[in-house]
Amino acid sequence: MPWGRQRPTWREARPKVIAQALERAQGRPSGNWYVAGAVRDLRDDRPLARTVAGLEVVVWRNAEGELVAGPGACPHLGAPLRYAPVLCGTLVCHWHGLALEGVPLAGWEPLPVYDDGLLVWVRLDGTGGGPPSDKPTVPARPALSGALSAVYENTGTCEPEDIVANRLDPWHGAWFHPYSFVDLTVVDAPSPAAADTGAEDGFSVDVSFKVAGRLVVPVRAVFTAPGPRTVVMRITEGEGRGSVVETHATPLGPDERGRPRTMVVEAIVAASDRRGFAVARTAAPMLRPLMKAAAGRLWRDDLAYAERRYALRSTGRFPG
User: Is residue 129 classed as helix, strand or coil in its secondary structure?
Assistant: First the structure.
């Protein structure tokens, strides 16, 4: 069907429904955990460096192979530890040689860190503001050993809530992303009482993913928000049943103009019962860039959505 002839969805995409789903998500505990990046981005010779909620953070593996995290400023004179080399599991400051092995030293204190097999999480109790938890709430995924996985990252001028709100508006899919989705119908949306009744607080969507030309794959997907900065899309019926796409929004800090910056970390974990899928997994190094490219195309548009939402909110013009 031509793009302009598809059924309008604006009456169904009620701003109140999206806003209430976002409010409920923001009220769920995070344990003060933030996604810092992909496990694959950890290297042996240098730390994974991020600015999370305005705090410089570095993550590396010690001599035993265990994750270590801590502030990214050297406690001696403030050198940026993002440029410090890792030597045999020790982070060595390149200004004066202060060696950090992951234990408290000279005012430097490690931060709780967690490796879920795909993503790296750090806990920032001074920023999160809620009660801490021993580990983050990691969404249920297919076993990574039998799945195809990829992690995509990008950054936008917005706040985490704008990223989450985008994902809690499935009605925009076929209109805003016609190169990826067709025949999108939201078959079930959460009611305002969903959180009180214990019902599944999610959006169920019937949609066909474009594969090539006129070839499409119809599935049912459910979007849920298990935490204030996470939205999970899970395929519940159709090809790839059980596959998940996790979208995590990590606040970085203001840019040079004082505007908020948020990093999107999207983890794609694809699974299938088809015999040929095992063969496809052997080609993971070649398929992973294609998976990231597909996510990047979607997020080119979705970041524009999130940035527009923030621009309107920050100037009192947002109609929702």
Answer: coil
